[in-house]
Design brief:
alpha/beta, 312 residues, single chain, TIM Barrel, globular, binds zinc ion, six-stranded parallel sheet, two-stranded parallel ribbon
């Protein structure tokens, strides 16, 4: 069964370890590789540009990761860049893995709008204004101040909308989330967040936030970060299913997707530690939900959303 994954951090890992390729054997250092995407029938994978906390946050580092996306990921056979709805359809129908470029935190752009425009040319189609802390655009979900979008952050959202870049609210403060909800004329989405009613964590979404995403025709990528799933570790696939169940109880079954955060985490859900494990998640879902619903959750909901809202 075809899967879609809205978030991974393999570009950041390859920036840190230039000797790694995007193939097996990766010396066991990478969760996401071309072979594992194929093995897991991952037909759509978003690749985030994330800047390490301890490194420079500037346009050069952002572009270095974009270059890795092109030189290491897109050069693999069977992987196809997704810039438009048509690209996505062609990759899906042709049994390829569609690769989407996203930016996790706009810190490195430093309000340099040329850099945003250049990234757009390089394929950027998803953008989260901030990571966990505050930056020039917005406060993050872990920032105690809890501020929303700044004036420049509002411009960022508007610029993205005019270019056809979708806004990812996963790391935003609650205030920032509601600013996006108010400002946006287009649907927004959460690439890798879970349900706060199931696991109290500031990176997880409240029921009101989830309902707002569903109303806006957006999607939520539930994530496999153990500490966002449960307060007990190791987390299990059953913990993922508890979050799925809650989204369904809010009427969100057609807005549910997954965003693994593979290569962004050091600890994993038991039995769900790399893209090749998507079929076992599908099996667990099939024990609880009808097949058409599971197909939606695993991949088709994300593809429907992107086909509708990426540039045509
Ligand atoms: Zn993240």
């Amino acid at each position: 069964m075809k899967a879609a994954d809205l978030h991974c951090d393999v570009l950041f890992k390859m920036l840190k370890h230039p000797e790694l390729s995007f193939r097996e054997p990766s010396g066991g250092k990478l969760d996401v590789t071309a072979d594992r995407l194929r093995e897991g029938e991952v037909s759509l994978q978003a690749f985030a540009i994330y800047l390490p906390e301890d490194g420079p946050k500037d346009p050069e580092t952002v572009l270095r990761e974009a270059e890795l996306f092109w030189s290491k990921v897109l050069s693999e056979k069977g992987i196809r860049l997704i810039r438009t709805a048509g690209d996505l359809q062609a990759a899906w129908d042709g049994g390829q893995t569609g690769a989407l470029l996203s930016l996790e935190g706009a810190d490195g752009l430093r309000e340099q709008w040329w850099c945003l425009r250049l990234l757009h040319l390089l394929g950027l189609r998803l953008l989260g204004p901030t990571w966990n802390w505050a930056n020039w655009a917005c406060d993050g979900a872990m920032e105690p101040r809890g501020g929303g979008l700044t004036r420049a952050g509002k411009r960022l959202v508007n610029e993205c909308e005019s270019m056809g870049i979708l806004i990812d609210v996963s790391h935003m403060s609650e205030r920032g989330f509601w600013d996006v909800a108010e400002l946006s004329s287009r649907p927004f989405f959460a690439s890798h967040s879970n349900v706060r009613a199931v696991r109290e964590h500031s990176r997880n979404l409240t029921d009101a936030q989830l309902a707002a995403i569903f109303r806006a025709d957006g999607i939520v990528g539930l994530t496999f970060v153990p500490w966002f799933l449960s307060d007990r570790e190791p987390a299990s696939v059953d913990d993922v299913l508890r979050h799925v169940e809650h989204v369904c109880s809010l009427g969100g079954e057609r807005h549910l997707a997954f965003g693994s955060d593979f290569d962004g985490i050091e600890r994993h859900v038991h039995g769900l530690s790399q893209p090749g494990h998507y079929p076992s998640l599908a099996d667990a879902l099939l024990k609880r939900y009808p097949e058409p619903i599971v197909r939606g959750m695993l991949g088709e909901n994300a593809v429907r959303f992107l086909r509708k809202y990426l540039p045509q």
